[in-house]
Specification:
Number of strands: 0
Strand content: under 5%
Radius of gyration: 29 Å
Distance between the termini: 83 Å
Shape: globular
Number of helices: 24
Number of domains: 2
Order of helices and strands: HHHHHHHHHHHHHHHHHHHHHHHH
């Protein structure tokens, strides 16, 4: 009955068009009220205040407001238009060149803004009319731009990666800089698959090609030169160790003001306060979502949801590849039913430790796979942020947009399978930077140990038995010791036998005898103190 009441409340709020942070907050409050005994503490708002205070102490989080504000300024400042003009001049001569130019523009703009919805709004408002004018099918144009805009989840400095880095702690924790570096090749891989699809469609569009002009390419390059410097400044500073991801957000914000206001002049200085007010509203909503999602994490910890999930996964006797497949199916369903940010904050702290500690999945690799799942969540109906954004930008019904993304969504899901089972695609750049092996094998035979009851620590795991030396169990050691004791007398000229391996009972007995000996020798109680000699 309590569960039905919770679901009914959530569905009602969704149908009423409530804001996301309201839905998450109500769900959190109802969970504590219906399923725990901590209602009084929740009503005093202690948890929310504590979580908000803790969030402000996370350096990674401080970069998110800067990137959101920078994206708002760049969208207004015409930077997206300059980048799309350059991409059209560069590849517009190809079959499907204008569609490929849309993908390139999304990649470059996402490398500046770090936001998937912002990228979709900025590039989509420019490229969608151009694609229709060139004869591309409307449904294809909507699906391609919506999916390419979602690459903002993967292109560093992606806000979704920062959210993931905030949500995981302990042995699952990842450095945002490493996550950025590892996400670049997977993002280009997905973009390449979308480009192949665009070229294939372009062959059937008579007006898809534009004549190449060197002078036009040079003119558009000069117009976009300052815009192109922004991703090099941001990413070059992070990868070069000049500044941290948090400082990179401040650099992107300052650079966007200089380029949009001082150099291009597309944004008037008097318009800047209004843009910052709009960005602040979005930032405030995001802070509330994160804080309330952390409160929902507290509820899941209260009912020991992580322990239950770990216990179920470990006793299911899944191999590593089966576990990853199951996780991705679960994440795709969750991404389709709830906001991707909330899904990351709630489920990343639960699933990441299981993948890393019990199956030997690399933390960075699991983080990249998780973020790709969240990119799919941005596109999978019914709760898909970018579908709602696309419906508003392209002025199309939500159902039409949902149908349009199905082909490109299938391409991204296929790419997810490849990224999931070929860790080198995400890890090779990191290993190349650190001087390690570029090829990283997936632990296909890795299995979790049989779980202890929820709440108890599981035993250590050997993920790849073929790669590690065999470690005898206690039963094997006792059997070997018993065989040695029962064996006939050996040749006196043979080398001495291995020392006796004690059983668990013998070791405990010997430890007890040692304690008794120590207590008999050492005096008990306070000892007299010898006064120091006088000077």
């Amino acid at each position: 009955m309590s569960l039905l009441l919770l679901l009914a409340a959530i569905v009602t709020l969704v149908l009423l068009g409530s804001r996301l942070f309201v839905i998450v907050g109500v769900a959190t409050a109802l969970c504590f009220t219906l399923f725990t005994e901590h209602t009084d503490e929740l009503l005093q708002l202690d948890r929310i205040v504590t979580k908000m205070e803790g969030l402000t102490s996370k350096n990674v989080f401080l970069s998110i407001p800067f990137f959101i504000a920078a994206g708002a300024i760049m969208t207004k400042g015409g930077i997206a238009r300059r980048l799309t003009d350059l991409a059209r001049a560069l590849v517009g001569w190809m079959p499907g060149g204008l569609a490929v130019a849309s993908i390139i523009a999304c990649i470059v703009f996402a490398a500046i803004s770090g936001s998937s919805p912002v990228t979709l709004v900025a590039v989509g408002s420019v490229m969608f009319p151009a694609l229709l004018e060139s004869g591309y099918p409307k449904r294809f144009s909507i699906g391609l731009i919506t999916s390419a805009g979602s690459l903002g989840c993967m292109i560093p400095p992606a806000i979704s990666m920062l959210i993931y880095a905030i949500s995981v702690q302990g042995s699952s924790a990842v450095d945002p800089s490493d996550l950025f570096f590892a996400g670049l090749v997977p993002a280009l891989f997905i973009a390449g698959l979308l480009a192949v699809y665009a070229i294939w469609v372009g062959f059937s569009v008579p007006g898809s090609k534009e004549p190449f002009s060197g002078s036009r390419l040079w003119e558009t390059f000069k117009g976009a030169a300052w815009a192109l410097t922004l991703p090099f400044i941001v990413l070059g500073g992070i990868y070069g160790g000049i500044f941290t991801p948090t400082e990179a957000g401040a650099v992107a914000f300052a650079a966007s003001i200089v380029v949009a206001c001082a150099i291009h002049g597309d944004v008037k200085w008097r318009e800047l306060p209004g843009l910052l007010v709009d960005a602040t509203t979005l930032i405030g909503s995001l802070i509330l979502i994160i804080v309330l999602a952390f409160g929902l994490n507290d509820f899941l910890a209260e009912v020991d949801a992580p322990g239950v999930i770990r216990h179920w996964v470990e006793t299911a006797d899944l191999s590593a590849w089966q576990f990853m497949l199951l996780v991705n199916v679960i994440l795709i369903v969750l991404g389709a039913l709830m906001d991707s940010i909330s899904a990351t904050l709630v489920f990343a702290p639960i699933l990441a430790p299981v993948a890393i500690q019990h199956y030997g999945i690399d933390p960075i690799h699991f983080g990249i796979v998780f973020v790709v799942n969240m990119e799919i969540g941005y596109l999978a109906p019914p709760v898909a942020t970018n579908l709602f954004v696309a419906a508003a930008v392209f002025r199309q019904p939500f159902v039409e947009v949902a149908k349009a993304v199905m082909p490109t969504l299938g391409i991204i899901c296929g790419a997810l399978v490849v990224l999931m089972y070929v860790p080198s695609i995400s890890l090779a750049p990191l290993h190349w930077r650190d001087g390690g092996d570029l090829w990283v094998a997936f632990p296909w035979e890795g299995k979790a140990v049989v779980a202890a009851p929820p709440g108890e620590a599981p035993a250590p795991v050997v993920v790849d038995p073929s790669a590690a030396p065999h470690v005898m169990s206690m039963e094997e050691m006792m059997r070997k010791a018993q065989d040695a004791a029962n064996a006939p007398a050996a040749d006196p000229n043979a080398p001495p036998a291995a020392p006796h391996v004690m059983s668990m009972e013998e070791m405990m007995k010997k430890a007890q005898e040692k304690v008794q000996q120590d207590q008999a020798v050492e005096p008990v109680g306070p000892q007299p103190v010898t006064p120091a000699p006088a000077n």
